[in-house]
Amino acid sequence: MAQIYVSGLTFGYEGSYENIFENVSFCIDTDWKLGLIGRNGKGKTTFLNLLLGKYEYQGSIRTSEPFEYFPFSVEKEMMKNLTIDVMEKIYPDYELWKICCELELLQTDAEILYRPYETLSHGERTKVMLAMLFSRDHVFLLIDESTNHLDRETRETVEKYLRGKKGFILVSHDRTLLDACIDHVLVLERNQIRVNQGNFSSWWENKKREDQFEQAENERLKKEIGKLKTAARQSGMWADKAEQSKIGFDPRKETNRFIGTRAYIGEKSRKMQQHRKNLERRQEKAISEKSQLLKNIEETTDLKMMPCVHHKETYITARNLNLFYGDREVFHDFQLELKRGDRVILSGKNGCGKSSIIKGILTSDGVKALNGFPEEFENEKRHFEGELTVANGLKISYISQDTSGLRGKLDDYIEKIGVSNHLMKSVLRQLDFEREQFDKQMEEYSEGQKKKVLIAGSLLQQAHLYIWDEPLNYIDIFSRMQIEQMILRYQPTMLIVEHDRFFGEKCATKQIVM
Question: What integer pLDDT is reported at residue 270 of this predicted model?
Answer without folding.
Answer: 67
